Q: What sequence folds into this?
């Protein structure tokens, strides 16, 4: 038998601890950083708005539009907006691109309700907009909260009406109604996902009829009159529109200690903003840094603005061409932090988690070696070598980190864009900020984790190893 006396048990054991205990000096910096983050949230409730706000910040930071074939030297900063919905930004490194890129990727689309192509209707003297939910929403969470309309509507002449209604204090808001408890007996019998269905997610638009008493659909017509007055649009113009129904409330501090932020759309702006800030603040990096804020993650990354398309890799290939570098050589030498939110351990729903492998709000940037479901299917499983690289980078820079999985095995699961990057022969690992109430209209994150995400992206951008 081999019994020992462990002199320093803490050097043998692994246990993640809070940022407050490990890096108390970071609290003040985190508070300051999150002011900019809240502005990013409030100015970018859709992927289009987030891309535009990012473009403004990039221009202010001296980024020039990328033109294929342009001459680029170390320290140059260029960007490209893909179809108004994705951001690509790069800082040219001192090393040749043949030695690889340092890629930070996050997404700026969030779960929401989109308007259908023919959305407006009237029933029992009330006008509504029909919606089709986008991404993984728990439908019962969307009624009885104030909602805003954001998007673009193209008129017959090809001109664009941009709308944002419900954000200003003086704006009206919209909502989806629910049944009163007094008449809810039958609804209460249903399973949670069936209590509110996709066909129930109709947005209340108004109740006043037009003055003409003989007309049909008078309430609907009154809404169309008001829309036509304000935006010069007709009902047909909704067929060429992208209008998103999102929560009308703003990002707010949560908790008496103000340590948390509650907001719509943390997934995944809580990684996108820190990644963008780190990219913008990087000067003369050793490796060329690239920050990608993508669209369509919440619906599986397909389509021309999703990471399953070639748009990111075309951009990287075109960067390589400016130096006459073979992109295959560059990709094989590259590393990518694929950032997306992780499931924050929730003690009120402890049953869903395995505590030792949970990721916790307030304990720093979270690493997921893999995601997926049903026995690690449909995931990029980062190599031990890459985890080792990342954890040593974080340790060297005093960044508080944790590692885990998304809840208990076989409860569900989910994927990220990591696999689409890894499938292009680029070493990729998942990281992200833990979120409570993920995918709900009011998600919650810890400020210190947002800040540690930023520190992680920054350290990776500046890494010269
Ligand atoms: Mn996400
Ligand atoms: Mn998501």
A:
């Amino acid at each position: 038998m081999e019994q020992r006396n462990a002199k320093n048990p803490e050097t043998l054991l692994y246990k993640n601890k809070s940022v407050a205990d490990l890096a108390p000096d970071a609290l003040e910096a985190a508070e300051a950083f999150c002011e900019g983050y809240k502005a990013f949230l409030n100015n970018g409730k859709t992927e289009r708005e987030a891309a535009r706000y990012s473009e403004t910040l990039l221009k202010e930071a001296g980024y020039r539009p990328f033109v294929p074939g342009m001459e680029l030297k170390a320290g140059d900063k260029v960007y490209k907006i893909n179809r108004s919905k994705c951001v690509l930004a790069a800082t040219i490194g001192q090393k040749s691109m043949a030695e690889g890129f340092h890629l930070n990727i996050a997404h700026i689309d969030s779960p929401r309700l989109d308007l259908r192509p023919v959305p407006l209707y009237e029933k029992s003297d009330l006008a509504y907009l029909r919606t089709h939910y986008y991404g993984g929403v728990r439908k019962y969470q969307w009624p009885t909260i104030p909602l805003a309309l954001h998007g673009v509507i193209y008129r017959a002449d090809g001109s664009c009406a941009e709308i944002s209604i419900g954000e200003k204090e003086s704006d009206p808001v919209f909502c989806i109604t629910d049944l009163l408890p007094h008449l809810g007996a039958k609804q209460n019998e249903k399973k949670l996902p069936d209590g509110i269905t996709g066909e129930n997610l109709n947005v209340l638009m108004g109740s006043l009829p037009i003055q003409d008493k003989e007309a049909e659909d008078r309430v609907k017509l009154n809404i169309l009159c008001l829309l036509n007055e304000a935006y010069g649009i007709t009902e047909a113009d909704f067929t060429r529109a992208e209008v998103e129904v999102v929560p009308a409330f703003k990002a707010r501090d949560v908790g008496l200690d103000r340590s948390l932020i509650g907001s719509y759309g943390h997934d995944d702006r809580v990684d996108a903003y820190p990644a963008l800030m780190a990219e913008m603040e990087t000067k003369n990096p050793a490796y060329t840094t690239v920050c990608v804020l993508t669209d369509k993650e919440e619906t599986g990354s397909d389509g021309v603005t999703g990471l399953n398309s070639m748009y990111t890799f075309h951009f990287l290939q075109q960067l390589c061409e400016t130096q006459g570098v073979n992109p295959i050589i560059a990709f094989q030498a590259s590393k990518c932090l694929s950032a997306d939110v992780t499931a924050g351990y929730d003690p009120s729903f402890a049953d869903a988690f395995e505590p030792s492998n949970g990721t916790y709000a307030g304990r720093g940037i979270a690493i997921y070696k893999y995601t997926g479901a049903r026995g690690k299917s449909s995931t990029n499983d980062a190599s031990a070598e890459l985890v080792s690289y990342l954890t040593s980078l974080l340790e060297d820079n005093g960044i508080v980190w944790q590692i885990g999985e998304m809840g208990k095995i076989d409860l569900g699961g989910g994927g990220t864009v990591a696999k689409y990057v890894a499938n292009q022969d680029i070493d990729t690992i998942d990281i992200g900020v833990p979120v409570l109430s993920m995918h709900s209209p009011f998600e919650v994150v810890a400020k210190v984790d947002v800040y540690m995400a930023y520190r992680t992206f920054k350290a990776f951008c500046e890494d010269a190893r």
About this structure: The longest strand covers residues 112-123.
